Amino acid sequence: xxxxxxxxxxxxxxxxxxxxxxxxxxxxxxxxxxxxxxxxxxxxxxxxxxxxxxxxxxxxxxxxxxxxxxxxxxxxxxxxxxxxxxxxxxxxxxxxxxxxxxxxxxxxxxxxxxxxxxxxxxxx
Length: 124
Fold this sequence. Notes:
Blueprint: H1 5-18, H2 23-40, H3 57-70, H4 79-86, E1 96-97, H5 107-110, E2 120-121
Antiparallel strand pairs: 1-2
Helix pairs in contact: 1-2, 1-3
């Protein structure tokens, strides 16, 4: 949190959304943010992990990715960022499963709306 990786990603995304409306100062700030993000991305593509305390890495990476997607041509290679985010999803490869709901005789006939399932972790 010390270096401001998550807030930089937020400002970067906002400036990318504004585009030319940000004016010359906005364009200069955008260029600074691009350099900052490039410098602070880790080898796997995550942002927010450069300090000794994590700075909302999923949030920071997602905002930087969204800002990069708003600008053409590509500002930097986003494939590592996408892969990094995908690997942090609640999925079986990371120990998360969707439990099979218990079966009760006649339950499917009585239920008119879809059942919500709770995702649980098998990690200890």
